Amino acid sequence: MLWIEPVGLENPGGTRGSTHFSTISYGETAYSEIRRFVVIRNRGSFSQCIPIQTYRRRGATKPGLVPEDHGVIYTGERGDDPPELLENEGISKSPIRVDSAAGELLEPESRINYGKPYAVEHNVKVLEIGQVAPEHIHLLQIYFEDTMRLA
């Protein structure tokens, strides 16, 4: 989905990768990007979701992240091996496989952040990536609930 949020105290301007920076009301800066999510719960008019990001292809090695809150997420067929962890990544959770929809693929550095839930309204335009593999749904639920309990 198209995701827009404030930049915060840093104001880099311009563009970076697939992210675009814009000046909005009150002289503030916002950035927009296409962001991927896993739906955890449907809550009626919105869904509780957790983000999938590559962190500019750094996976969970990006400084400031909590590696214990992250896991590998990948598209593939049953029996396909997940992507390898990056050097010094420190992820201990089992990978989550997604059955691709219409050829959509996740980059090998894609990581799911169990510790950062978002509310995504149902009236926004989205593109389906696929479905979490049936054999991994229980892991997704356990990892999310455990991470939220520890937060």
Condensed summary:
9% of the residues lie in helices and 36% in strands.
Task: Indicate the topology.
Elements: E1 2-6, E2 15-16, E3 19-23, E4 29-34, E5 36-42, E6 46-53, E7 70-75, E8 96-100, E9 111-113, E10 118-121, E11 130-132, H1 137-150
Parallel strand pairs: 7-8
Antiparallel strand pairs: 1-4, 2-3, 3-4, 5-6, 6-9, 6-10, 7-9, 8-11
Domain DUF6590: 1-140
Protein name: DUF6590 domain-containing protein
Organism: Polyplosphaeria fusca
Q: Flag low-confidence runs.
A: none
Strand portion? 35-45%
First-last Cα distance: 26 Å
Number of strand elements: 11
Biggest β-sheet: count, sense, barrel?
A: 7 strands, mixed
Helix content: under 10%
**Class based on secondary structure composition and strand pairing:** mainly beta
| Morphology call | globular
Over all CA atoms, what is the radius of gyration? Answer: 16 Å
The overall average pLDDT, rounded, is 91
Counted by DSSP, the helix tally is: 1
Order of SSEs, N→C?
A: EEEEEEEEEEEH
Number of domains: 2
Domain DUF6590: 1-140
Protein name: DUF6590 domain-containing protein
InterPro entries: DUF6590 (IPR046497)
Pfam family, one: DUF6590
Would you write up a description of this structure?
The chain is mostly beta strands and 151 residues long. The chain folds into two domains: 1-34, no CATH class; 35-150, no CATH class. Helices cover 9% and strands 36% of the residues. It is built from one helix and eleven strands. The chain has one helix at 137-150, and strands spanning 2-6, 15-16, 19-23, 29-34, 36-42, 46-53, 70-75, 96-100, 111-113, 118-121, 130-132. The strands form two sheets. Strands 5, 6, 7, 8, 9, 10 and 11 form a seven-stranded mixed beta sheet that branches. A four-stranded antiparallel beta sheet has the order 1-4-3-2, with no helix packed on it. A hairpin with a 5-residue loop joins strand 3 (19-23) and strand 4. The longest helix is centred in the C-terminal third of the chain and has 14 residues, at 137-150. The two termini are 26 Å apart. The mean pLDDT is 91.
